[in-house]
C-alpha cells in the first residue's frame, strides 16, 4: 500500500442521505423515516443507483437469482477465494437510514479508499448487498444470505408467501422476484464453503452499550440465536352488538393473553440476553363492530443460549394449551425459523484488535443480540462484525442515528482489515 | 286497496343476490362474502343499480349532500308528512348479504307490492337508503341517519377522517363525498321533526333468539345504547433483538392488558345486555422484528342501560391509570360516539301486532342489541322495527343467512303496516 487510507466522509454521508430518499415513507419530524421493502419500486431504484456507483468505480457487478448484488474488485490472483464485506439496504416500515446501509455504502467506500491508496489486492475484494435481510415481506429474515449459505431450501424459499397479504391475494417469492427481474433457479444462489476466504460486516450496534460506555467501536464475538414463529388464533366472529358475552370465543382476547404469556415467560428467565417481541397483530375481519374471528401474531424470540430460548417456548405452549381449553379457541403455531448462534473467527477478531490498537482505540468485545446476514455467512466462511455506536441504542426508527465520526472510523477499520485479509 | 298484497319472492331473492355481486370481497366457501365500504367503487355501483330499479318503477329519486338516497312514491296528499322505511346497503369487510339489504330491497318490494294491489296511498311512502350505517370507513356508524336527525354536527362530520388510514394520508368525509359526487352543505341533510309521519325498518335480527324460539318475526320495542371509543397506546419502539426486556415500554403488551380489562369488566356486570368488543388493533410500525411503539384499539360497547355502560368504562379507566404508571406508557381515550337508547312508538307496535294477528303469527317483542339507523330516526319521528330470524344468530359474516320464507313474511308485514300508516 503506497499511502494512508483516507475515508471520504463527506461523500459517504451524502450517499447515505441519497439512499434514504429511495423510500415509501412520509417525512416525519423526529428524523428520517425510511420504508424500503424488498422488491418494492424504491428497493429497485436503490439497487439501480448502487450499481451505477459501483460501475463508475470500475468494479464488476453481478446479481444472483434471488437478487443478491455482488460488487467485485478483482485481485491480482482472482482465482483465490475472495475477501468479502457487505450488508443490506432493505428497511422495515418507518425505519431509519443507518441499519444495513452503513455496511453497504461503508463497504463501497472502504473499497474506493483502498483503491485510492494505490493498493492492488492479492485476493479479490467483494461487496455483497443481500436481498431481504428484513422479514417484512416474506416473514423470514436474511433470505439472501440463507440461500447463499444453503440454510434455506430453494424450493421452500420460492414458495414463501407475502406475510402481510390475505392468503388468497399473497404472491410467492418466485412470483415477486421474477416480476422484479430476478429469474433462474434459486439453487444456483448457494456458494461453496471455500468461496470466501473471510467475511467482515460493518453495522450499527442497534443497542445502547457502546454509547453508554463511551467506546467508538465494537468487535462482535458471537451472534445470538433468533427464532421466528407465527401464531394463528381462531375463534368465533359475529356482530359486536348481537353476539352475547357468554357465547363469545373472541380471538383477540385470546391473542391478548398469548402476548402477555410470552412477555411473562421471557421476563421470568431473568437473563438479559433473552428477548421476545410480538411485532404484528392482524385482526380479522378488523371492523370496529365485529367480534374478531381470527388473529395472526408474529413472534421474534432471541437468545445467546438456544436451550433457554426453547424453555421459554415450552412455557408459552403450556399456557396455550390452557387457553385453548378455557376459551374454546384454536391456536396453531408455525415455526418460521430457528437458528443456532454464530461465533466470530478468532483470527479476524485478532486482526480487528491489531488495527484498533494502531488507531489508539480500545474496542469493546460484544455479543450481537440482533442477527445479521453474517450469522448465515458464518456457515460457509470465517466471519466477524464491526459495530459502531447508535444514539440511545435506537434502531428501526426514524430517529436512528450514528455520528459521521463513528461511521468514518468504522469504515477505516473495515478497510484496513479487508486489506490485511486480501493480502493473505 | 283492491286486492291482496303479494310479495314477489323470486324477484326479491334475485335482487338480493345481484346486490351481493357489488363487492370487493373474494368468494369464500362458507357463504357469500360481501365487502362494500361506503363510497367505494362497489358502493357507487350498487347505488346506481338501486336507482335504476326505482326509476323503472316510476318512483321519484333524490340524493342529499351526504349521499342518503330517497325513493318516493307520491301519495294523493303529497304535502302530508310521508311514511318511511329503509335501511343501508354498505357492508363491513367480509360480511354477509342480508344485513341492511333486506330492509332496502325489502322496502322497495313492499312499495311495489302495494302498487300492484292498485293502492293509491294518501301519504307518500318513502324508501331511504342511508349512507354509512357501518363505521368501517369513518370510525362512526349511522353517518347518514345521524345527520338527518341532527345528532351529528355537520362541520364535525365533514372533518371526520378515514379510520384505517395513517393520519397523514387519510381523507376527510368532505373530500371523499365530494369525490363520490355528493356535494353541497351537510347542514342541508337535516330533516324537520314533522318531516315523517312514521318510520318502520325491516332488518335481520343479528342474534339467536327468534330462531331459538321458532318465531318467524320480532317486533323491536327498544334499541340498546351504543358507544364507541378509540384508545391510543404509545410506548417505546426499537429493534426486537437489541432493545432489552427491562428497558421496554411495549405498546402491544399494554394494549393486550387493556383488551383483557375491557372484557373482564364487561363480564363482571353479569348483565346479558352489556356487550363490549375491541374489533381492531393496529400496531405501529407493525414489523415482526420491531418492538411496537404505538397501538390503536377501537372499542364498541353497548347496553340497554347507559348507566351500567358508563360504570364499565369507569372501571376500565381505573385499570388504564394503573397500566400507565406500571408500564410507563401513554394511553389516550377518544370518545367517538355515545348514544341514548330509543323506544319504539306504541302506536306502530300496535299496528304490527294487529297485522301479525291477521297473518296468524305470534311475534316476539324484543330489544335490539345491535343499533340501527332507526335509533337516530327515533329523534325526529315515531319508529319501530321488524326483525326476521337469521341462522345461528350469525351476522357480519359470509355465512349470514335468512330464509326466503322469513324474508318474504317480513316484507309482507312491512307492506301491510306501511299501507295502514299511509292511510292515517
Quick tags:
424 residues; alpha+beta; Aminopeptidase; Alpha-Beta Plaits; nine-stranded mixed β-sheet; 12 helices; 34% helix
Outline the secondary-structure elements.
The structure is a homodimer of 424-residue chains.
Chain A: H1 9-19, E1 34-36, H2 41-56, E2 60-63, E3 69-73, E4 82-88, E5 91-95, H3 101-116, E6 125-130, H4 143-148, H5 154-159, H6 173-179, E7 196-204, H7 209-213, E8 218-223, E9 225-234, E10 238-239, H8 251-268, E11 275-284, E12 290-291, E13 294-303, H9 306-327, E14 330-338, E15 342-343, H10 346-358, E16 364-368, H11 373-377, E17 383-388, H12 404-423
Parallel strand pairs in A: 4-6, 4-7, 7-17, 8-16
Antiparallel strand pairs in A: 1-5, 2-3, 3-6, 8-15, 8-17, 9-13, 9-14, 10-12, 11-13
Structure description:
Chains A, B: It comes from Tunturiibacter empetritectus. Chains A, B: Residues 227-322 form the Peptidase M20 dimerisation domain. Chains A, B: Keywords: Hydrolase, Manganese, Metal-binding, Zinc. Two copies of one chain form a homodimer. Chain A is an alpha+beta fold and 424 residues long. Chain A has two domains: 9-224 and 341-423, Aminopeptidase; 230-338, 2-Layer Sandwich (Alpha-Beta Plaits). Helix content of chain A is 34%, strand content 24%. The first copy, chain A, has helices at residues 9-19, 41-56, 101-116, 143-148, 154-159, 173-179, 209-213, 251-268, 306-327, 346-358, 373-377, 404-423, and strands spanning 34-36, 60-63, 69-73, 82-88, 91-95, 125-130, 196-204, 218-223, 225-234, 238-239, 275-284, 290-291, 294-303, 330-338, 342-343, 364-368, 383-388. In chain A, strands 2, 3, 4, 6, 7, 8, 15, 16 and 17 form a nine-stranded mixed sheet that branches. In chain A, strands 11-13-9-14 form a four-stranded antiparallel sheet, covered by helices on one side. In chain A, helix 1 (9-19) packs antiparallel against helix 3 and helix 8 packs antiparallel against helix 9 (306-327). The longest helix of chain A is centred in the C-terminal third of the chain and has 22 residues, at 306-327. The mean pLDDT of chain A is 94. Chains A and B meet through strand 5, strand 10, helix 8, strand 11 and strand 12 of A and strand 5, strand 10, helix 8, strand 11 and strand 12 of B.
